[in-house]
Design goal:
This protein is mainly alpha-helical and 125 residues long. The protein has one domain. The C terminus is likely disordered. 68% of the residues lie in helices and 0% in strands. It has 5 helices and no strands.
């Protein structure tokens, strides 16, 4: 199944929402949140890697190549990624990334993808 730009943007939006929910839930064990957030950051990195530069270039404040590289690092160098890096990224960088991706998604929808700015996704899943 081929995934288009809208699908990839939806993937990032969904992962950002889940990261936010996990980090904000004090009832969850920190180790579980760490593992879950790392996996969602890997998903974000992969989705971003597949976005065309014509799309990402419209949001130059986001270091897209670093986002993609973080996903690769979490996959290949999982053994030396600290909780401070993961949680810092989740709390500081993910919110601005999510805002930018929402803008990209809205622009994509305006150009013809009729699923809407958030796409046909449940952001709590």
């Amino acid at each position: 199944m081929s995934r288009d730009v809208g699908d990839r943007l939806d993937d990032v939006i969904r992962a950002c929402g889940v990261i936010r929910a996990y980090v904000d839930d004090d009832a969850l064990p920190e180790g579980l949140v760490y593992d879950a957030v790392r996996m969602r950051l890997v998903e974000i990195g992969e989705a971003v890697r597949m976005l065309p530069s014509a799309v990402t270039s419209t949001e130059p404040s986001i270091p897209w190549s670093r986002v993609s590289l973080l996903g690769e690092r979490l996959t290949r160098r999982y053994f030396d990624t600290t909780p401070a890096v993961v949680f810092g990224t989740a709390r500081v960088d993910v919110p601005s990334l999510c805002e930018a991706v929402h803008r990209l998604r809205a622009a994509h929808a305006a150009r013809g993808d009729r699923r809407g700015a958030a796409g046909a996704v449940d952001l709590t899943q």
